[in-house]
Design brief:
Oligomer: single chain
Strand order of the largest sheet: 2-1-3-4
Bound molecules: glutathione
CATH topology of the largest domain: Glutathione S-transferase Yfyf (Class Pi), Chain A, domain 2
Radius of gyration: 18 Å
Structural class: alpha+beta
Number of helices: 10
């Protein structure tokens, strides 16, 4: 008897802008888990209605595995890890795994200053546009968290080898670079490790070819709105 194994599908937003989509996509790609992707644009007429019709709650990413659909980035990554126990998606050591989940939870629930002020925009470079005073506490937390993890693991990633926690922080790493924010050498080196990852490079290459504009993620729009 033959069983036709269907590939999982990840529904994602525009690669230039969609931070949440990048995270599970990186996990699937880096750990060589077969998947297809479908882009649901976050721009253009009727984009939200399209999202609502194709996703459980109107947001991407969503992982589709046969007739099963799961949304929320953390839940998606946990599902990928549970269904691929042979892949080191989380650190093997129980305490390190707990700390990697702690870091991921911090990212999922926090860093609102920098998220609001400096949207991911992979094809752009916007130095001197962000008022650093307004995001200083997030920058301090990044320094503390990342340098602590890197000192403990020895790098190049937060827990040594690339894991789900690095995928969670990859969009934040791009924001630090895009807006040329003040960071230590340790943090700069970590950002370079993310940019050197072949899975990230594949996403990045596709992102910078995109031409669609998501206004709410453009710094001119955000700063115009807030001024
Ligand atoms: N908490 C969600 C956040 C998902 C999210 O906000 N996704 C954005 C794209 S990066 C989205 O779908 N935006 C559509 C909207 O704002 O209506 C997760 O963890 O996946």
């Amino acid at each position: 008897m033959f069983f036709l194994e269907t590939k999982m599908k990840l529904l994602i937003g525009n690669k230039n802008y969609s931070t949440w989509s990048l995270r599970p996509w990186l996990v699937l790609q880096h750990f060589a888990i077969p998947f297809e992707e479908e882009i649901l644009p976050l721009n253009g007429e009727g984009w939200k209605e399209n999202l609502i019709s194709k996703t459980p709650y109107g947001f991407v990413p969503v992982l589709v595995d046969g007739d099963f659909r799961i949304s929320e980035t953390i839940a998606i990554i946990e599902y990928i890890a549970d269904t691929n126990p042979q892949k080191p998606i989380w650190p093997a050591n129980t305490k390190m795994r707990a700390l990697a989940r702690e870091a991921s939870a911090l990212m999922h629930a926090g860093f609102n200053e920098i998220r609001n002020a400096a949207p991911m925009n992979l094809r752009s470079f916007h130095p001197n546009r962000i008022d650093v005073n307004k995001i200083q506490s997030d920058l301090d937390l990044i320094e503390k968290l990342w340098s602590g993890c890197l000192a403990r693991s020895g790098g190049p990633f937060l827990f040594g080898e690339f894991c789900a926690a690095d995928a969670m922080f990859a969009p934040l790493a791009t924001r630090l670079k895009t807006y040329d924010l003040p960071i230590s050498d340790v943090v700069r080196e970590y950002i370079e490790a993310i940019y050197s990852l072949s899975a990230f490079q594949i996403w990045h290459e596709a992102a910078i070819k995109e031409t669609a504009i998501v206004e709410m993620d453009e710094i001119d729009f955000i700063q115009g709105k807030n001024s």
